[in-house]
Design brief:
Blueprint (H helix, E strand, L loop, with lengths): L2 H11 L6 H7 L1 H16 L6 H26 L7 H16 L2 E3 L4 E3 L3 H24 L5 H20 L4 E2 L14 H4 L1 E2 L2 E2 H19 L1 H11 L1 H6 L4 H27 L1 E2 L7 H11 L11 H20 L4 H55 L1 H30 L2
Antiparallel strand pairs: 1-2, 3-6, 4-5
Length: 406
């Protein structure tokens, strides 16, 4: 019996032990969020109030939307560094349209209503994602390089459109029919901010797609092993393009919500938000190598970052220290990811080595047994061979006799 079969036999009879360390690693995002809530509730009595929680949730909604789009890209083994710039660009487009689009040839200025402005802004975000996807899937450009280039291009266009200035006063004019933009940022339904509700809807849609559709299975297969998935009939290129499109759409939605909340659009909005989105995905337990990650974990990661940042502000910690704390959380999350996803690989390698050693031992035993079993035939071979020459000797003598006999 090999070591693998013996381990299987032992595993079938031995009771399963509850590994505390494994539970801590797999539930790290939830435990971190619970710890943050407990600590800041003790440090500040206003932290756990309903109003403050809703305000923090509305802040988290921006990060969560970016992280959800980033999750899909990371599941394929890619990365999107342009989500922050896409957020700022979409906000600028919305502000530019609401303030009026001058057409010098006709001598008129168009004032699109809020719905048209929002749809155009979101569509342009999807277009940016489409360009990223085509560069990565069709032209085989490394995701890091392609999206880094788009980060600079999109940010530069936003700065050119505004001359580096912030577009203020997006409330619109009733006479022009472009009022109501602040509804996304300030209004509530059943006491819940609109941004939070949009975040919930987007999260539910993505979770259903990942868990219940063929596209979700294709996505995980692409991230697990793109070559094997392609040989199995998965349209890897199409899946890759679509995940970048969805990431662009999520970034644009976040940009519109942010501009509505601030009633202004800055071309520098969303600066370094791409790093926050990646942090939310990593803290949530997704593997940057692809193929592993969940919507639930990503949402928890976004809430960890959002609640940590707002909690530090609430207790009066300097903004510089906030950066240090968030960076430390990201490093710890990456280390825990390495522990979670590295241990099974090491176990598999050890099992393979044990099986190989057991196979070599079995092969050695078989070889020794065969050598012992073949000893008797080998001993008789010389006598048989001796008979051969004697028989052959008879042949020449017979031939010699034949020559002497006429």
């Amino acid at each position: 019996m090999t070591s693998a079969s013996a381990a299987a036999a032992d595993g079938s009879t031995a009771p399963k032990k509850l590994e505390i360390s494994k539970l801590l690693i797999e539930g790290r995002a939830f435990l971190a969020l619970a710890l943050i809530i407990v600590v800041f509730s003790v440090l500040s009595p206003n932290f756990l109030t309903v109003d403050n929680l809703l305000i923090m949730a509305s802040h988290v909604a921006i990060f969560a939307l970016l992280s959800l789009g980033m999750l899909l890209v990371v599941l394929t083994g890619g990365i999107d560094l342009s989500v922050g710039s896409t957020l700022g660009f979409s906000a600028v487009i919305a502000g530019f349209l609401l303030r009026g689009v001058p057409i010098d040839v006709l001598g008129v200025t168009l004032y699109p209503n809020v719905l048209v402005s929002v749809l155009i802004s979101v569509a342009l975000g999807g277009l940016i994602g489409l360009i990223n996807g085509v560069l990565v899937a069709r032209f085989k450009v490394a995701p890091f390089v392609a999206t880094l280039g788009m980060l600079y291009v999109v940010r530069g266009v936003a700065l050119l459109m505004t001359n580096g200035r912030t577009i203020n006063d997006l409330s619109g004019d009733e006479g022009l029919g472009n009022t109501g933009f602040e509804w996304l940022g300030f209004n509530r339904i059943l006491g819940i901010p609109i941004g939070v509700l949009i975040m919930v809807v987007v999260a539910l849609v993505i979770a259903l797609v990942l868990a219940r559709t063929t596209f979700g299975r294709w996505l995980y297969a692409t991230g697990g092993n793109a070559r094997a998935a392609e040989l199995s009939g998965v349209p890897v290129k199409k899946v890759t393009v679509w995940v970048y499109v969805v990431a662009g759409l999520c970034s644009a939605i976040a940009g519109v919500i942010l501009a509505s909340t601030l009633t202004s659009a800055s071309p520098t909005a969303g600066n370094t938000y791409e790093l926050t989105a990646i942090a939310g995905v990593v803290i949530g337990g997704a593997a940057l190598s692809g193929g592993r990650g969940t919507v639930r974990g990503t949402l928890l990661g976004a809430f960890v970052i959002g609640f940590l940042s707002d909690g530090l502000v609430l207790v009066g910690v300097s903004a510089y220290w906030q950066t240090v704390f968030v960076g430390a959380v990201i490093v710890i999350a990456v280390m825990l990811n390495s522990l979670e996803y590295g241990r099974p690989r090491r176990k598999r390698k050890a099992a393979v080595a044990q099986d190989a050693g057991a196979g070599a031992a079995d092969a050695g035993a078989d070889a020794s047994g065969s050598s012992v079993g073949s000893a008797a035939p080998d001993a008789e071979a010389p006598s048989a061979g001796g008979d051969g020459p004697s028989a052959g000797g008879d042949g020449p003598s017979a031939g010699a006799d034949g020559e002497k006999t006429p």
